[in-house]
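tokens incoming
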């Protein structure tokens, strides 16, 4: 099963999670996709030039995705001349990329929900205070 057919299967089942990785790599060859996902993971895991090297970030990305470091090194250095990438490696990189994409989206959703809740609390308190003021004014007159 190719990654494209996996994406078509996801579309038919309504699973938009797999489509993010495929939309970000639309039109790329399989080795290009693997390299894109591996580099993206390495960028997210790189801790800065004083602490980390890109090689160690790549190895951390490989460990995080559950692929062999030798395969990550091969993709990193030779993706331009590779004909294909092992399907298991490709799927693991794609799934881990999706997980990393979902983290900021989930945090943003939690933030928006909290803002809506606070805005609702503020509106309710403001409305209560406004109705209390009206009742006091009517009681005085």
């Amino acid at each position: 099963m190719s990654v494209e057919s996996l994406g078509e299967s996801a579309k038919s089942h309504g699973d938009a999670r797999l489509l993010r990785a495929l939309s970000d790599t639309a039109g790329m060859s399989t080795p290009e996709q693997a390299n894109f996902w591996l580099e993206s993971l390495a960028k997210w895991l790189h801790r800065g030039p004083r602490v980390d090297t890109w090689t160690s970030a790549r190895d951390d990305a490989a460990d995080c995705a559950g692929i062999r470091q030798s395969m990550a090194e091969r993709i990193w250095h030779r993706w331009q001349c590779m004909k294909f990438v092992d399907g298991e490696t490709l799927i693991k990189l794609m799934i881990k990329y999706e997980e990393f994409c979902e983290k900021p989206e989930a945090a943003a959703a939690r933030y928006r929900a909290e803002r809506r809740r606070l805005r609702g609390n503020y509106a309710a308190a403001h409305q209560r205070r406004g109705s209390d003021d009206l009742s006091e004014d009517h009681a005085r007159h």
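note: The first helix runs from residue 3 to 13.
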